[in-house]
Amino acid sequence: MAFELPPLPYPKNALEPHTSAKTLEFHHDKHHAAYVTNLNNLVKDSPMASQSLEEIIKATAKDDSKVGIFNNAAQVWNHTFFWNCMKPNGGGQPSGDVAAAITKSFGSYDKFKEEFKAACVGQFGSGWGWLVGGGGALKITKTPNAVNPLSQGQTALLTCDVWEHAYYLDYQNRRPDFVETFLTHLVNWDFVAANLGKVR
Ligand code: FE2
Known about the structure:
This protein is mainly alpha-helical. It folds into 2 domains: 21-84, Fe,Mn superoxide dismutase (SOD) domain (Helix Hairpins, Orthogonal Bundle); 96-196, Iron/manganese superoxide dismutase, C-terminal domain (minor pseudopilin epsh fold), CATH 3.55.40. 49% of the residues lie in helices and 10% in strands. The protein has 8 helices and 3 strands. The longest helix is centred in the first third of the chain and has 23 residues, at 21-43. Bound molecules: fe (ii) ion (FE2). Residues 27, 31, 79, 161, 163, 165-166 line the site of fe (ii) ion. Residues 27, 31, 79, 161, 163, 165-166 line the site of fe (ii) ion (FE2).
């Protein structure tokens, strides 16, 4: 069974004016779709064709001879995760368990926001900013290209895609504005709460 491109969890214009339908059209229908197509071509007729995305990511993360498979598998996973990290009328401060975990780990929501923004803006070139769990505390990390927490033994709670294709049509070079808007208007804290429930 070949990997399939999951549909966006909302209509393409649902995140406007913060992320345009045009951006989601290119980002989901072209970029995300291409990773799915590439992955299927790369694993076709190999034992990996019957493995899960997570299994492939973990099996190839440290194998230089499988970097193409890792990059495409991880980018398929990362994008599906990223779409679910956003929702219309999202963003702002979380509540409940997520708010408590953020306060415990960072001191305050504002401190979390400052650190998350710094990671996203400070990622040189293409990559991802993450909030991850594990070991009793939440942490902020950034990764280059396709690398993700799954490949590093961490549980992803939230991510922001900081590849230029995520924001260039709407924000051009202004990555800090995109990240600020992501945090203020787009974050789906319900999804983060569901992920927090999986952290051991
Ligand atoms: Fe992307």
